[in-house]
Amino acid sequence: MGPRTITTSRRMASNRIFLYGCFAATSIAILVLCVLMISIAVEGWSSVSWRFLDSFASRKAAQAGIKAPLMGSIWVCAICGLVAIPMGIGTAIYLEEFAKRSRVKRLIQLNISNLSGVPSIVYGILALAAFVRCFGLNTGDAPWSLGNPESLLFIQFPCGPSVLAGGLTLALVILPIMIIASQEAFRSVPQSLRQGALALGSTPWQVVWRVSLPAALPTIMTGSILAMSRAVGEAAPLLVIGGFLLVFQTPTNLMSDFTVLPLQIFNWAGRPQADFHKLAAAAIIVQLIALLVFNSIAIIIRQKLQRPLQS
Amino acid sequence: MMIPTTLRPPIDHAPPTSIDQRRPDEARLPAAAHPSAISMRGFNSWYGDHQVLHALDLEIATRQVCAFIGPSGCGKSTLLRWINRMNDTIPGARAAGTLSLHGIDLLDRSLDVVDLRRRVGMVFQKPNPFPKSIFDNVAFGPRLHRVYARTDLEELVEQSLRASALWDEVKDRLDSSALGLSGGQQQRLCIARAVAIGPEMLLMDEPCSALDPRSTASIEQLIRELRASYTIVIVTHNMQQASRVSDSTAFFYEGRLIESGATDLLFTNPKNRQTEDYVTGRFG
Amino acid sequence: MIAAAARTAAEIAQRGTPCSLLVRRRFEGSIRAVLWLLTCLSVVTTAAIIVVLAVETYRFFTAQGHPEISVWSFFSGTEWSPLLGAQPLFGVLPLVAGTLLVTTIAGVVALPMGLMTAVYLSEYAPPRRRVALKAALEVLAGVPTVVYGFFAVTFITPMLLQPLSSSFGTYSAMSAGIAVGIMILPIVCSLCEDALRAVPQSLRDGAYALGSTKFDVSAKVVVPAALSGIVAAFLLALTRAIGETMIVALAAGGLAHMTADPSSQVQTMTAYMVQIFLGDAPAAGIEYKSSYAVAFTLFLITFALTWIGAIVLRRYREEYE
Questions:
Q1: Out of A17, A136, A213, C9, which residue is the most buried by the measure of CB atoms under 10 Å away?
Q2: Which residues of chain C lie closer than 8 angstroms to B130, CB-CB?
Q3: What's the CATH code of the domain at C85?
Q4: Number of domains observed in the structure of chain B
Q5: For C116-162, how does the pLDDT look when each residue is reduced to its tens digit (9 = 90+)?
Q6: Is C142 at the interface with chain A, CB within 8 A?
Q7: Could you read off the pLDDT of B109-148 as tens digits, one per residue?
Q8: CA angle, A48 then A53 then A57, to 5°
Q9: B186 belongs to a structural domain
Q10: A233 at the C interface (CB within 8 A)?
Q11: Shared domain check, C90 and C128
């Protein structure tokens, strides 16, 4: 007689233990998320008020608010989005729709995935040299300026630690993410759609503009929102370029000083007094609400707009 | 004959535990006492609300090759996947009626499907070797079930590969990846993998549909040889194939069993008009 | 009827004036050129990072009045005290050790848990629960890192660590490590899940048909088949942990020393850079310049890790049709 089979009950036991283990891991992850949200809500909820949103920073915890960082975050992220999203999509279009398979393309691809792994603080150092100081090209006393200081689009070189520099810095950080997300969107467009358009006599750009881009757009939008939510939360690179921790005005043009919510949270969280921890928690609540809104929009877009392109 | 010594005929095997414990007397009966390996009475099956199989009555004889034929979507693969309960992995699949293997109720909720699948091997439409070495692919099942004494594993792998007529082609590269084999070789590897756990029955779901004619011929040859040791059920689209390899044939149409019987009779003298149209190639 | 309709359609189609070949070519060509320039920008970014870091690091090593600084002493020195004492010491190893300690703790927390969560999501969870859980993980992934830093300071340290042992102070490697672990958990999880789901269903079917339990299928077929993707996910997550700044700046403390004790304070490479750029040091000073050398070290480490990850993915990926 051949050897016996291992008792099934023992294999079933290991099967069950494994399931419980995996389930426990998942539960812990969700539990952590809940604890995080609840502990912050408990700590900060009492400090969230209209006055909190509408006041500037202060040495007295009772009078401090987040008007400047809130407006700063909006300005910086708007600039970041305006720069990074079109550039990311453009690069993705070139790589997915135009570039031939070649060594060069492979290297560029590798380079982009490497860039997405570069710590954000290192981007801060690049931005400090490139935008804030413009590589020291302007050695004169006064910065070169462009436009009227009263106008919205007033620009100086070097930019200094301004809203513009901050937005461009964040654009550097999220550009690789944006490119990779858009590339995936283009890759998921079935080749048959492109061939159909080409067979009707479309030029390559017409194929992109009328077929690939519309088909890829929902995915690109989801990717953009997720990339932007990363930008909203970034603090390290802005800290390096000298985003001010105490600002008592809201930005008025591209050259205004600024601070952003995560920097303000960092400032308050780093202080020993419990009162300021409460303020930090309140600011985090504002930040997380914004984040949840972002994420919900992404989920809605994904579910409503993503029709299947092939049966 | 290609029946390897270590692969004893299925009945000689130590009968698997759980099924065995519930019906000890039946499981130990010699094959001859059970001319039918599979028998079904009034068997129905659904995916969700959609009924795919209607009131089937069918017997499948032991140590014979039975072919399921019929146009796409007629439910023959579904039926096949009930025999080893692979349908359990599909949400919404359910069945009613009687379906038994050597008298064991296959629709019993408490049936140990893991053990059932050890006794009923399956080969899929597309070859699906694991991304492991050739040796590890064949040894995968035996290692799961420990159906070997430790020193026998190499022998078992060799005999299984011989049984699937692949040994001579791969004996020098057992450690290389199975994904490097050709399609036909991969499919024969999958057969070896199924044979290695010592099943009493093999289910084949269009095993040649992804293969070129030469590989198909070698698989068909193999099926004819394996018949001596196993009960084989093969689903096929190819009528010539059914007539070449099978002893009996069942023709399905739109979820119903239209006709079944000895293959030569069914192909030369069908009783039913639909069967005749199908086997002569007038529709389907 | 049909013939008439076809003739009419053909006539209408002839009426427009097609764009001339030349105009079309110019237009297409200029768009291509613009897109090509955009693509080059990513290469320029990498080059610019390397040049800026290299130039500033060179300035640090050749700084006037500091003959004690050399490449060798920087990379092999075990003491880092740029701001204290008459004689500043620049040996980067304590910062690297601090980074490694925090990253190791984060890895121990996040990698096994992330992989198991991914297995649950991909192999076990019913579809609707899977969607809900993935949305929750997406939220976790979007939480700004400074929030995790705050969580470490106000929850992990006082509520978890200090009740366990009195050796934990306000700042510790453990606290920061756990927070970084929570931060990288969703990354590990979603990348591993992608890798697991890329394994074709036919392999699972094959394994089930051989009498595998779900555990056998997951642990012996699916996970090994997805191994390259899992390893790449781990490397990417560890890269993020190494480069994480705000959590360690808030929770790890500011003491640069060589230690493996998780309850002690440590300073990581990123935390040192924050300390300098927050304005503890004058911009012309040697301490300020040293932060560039630290940044270059950090860049090289993370660049190497991502590079290895990309190679693992490409070389060891199993190709399925």
A1: A213
A2: 203, 206-207, 221, 224-225
A3: 1.10.3720.10
A4: 1
A5: 999 999 999 988 899 889 888 888 888 999 999 999 999 998 888 88
A6: yes
A7: 888 888 888 889 999 988 999 988 999 999 988 888 776 6
A8: 105
A9: no
A10: yes
A11: yes
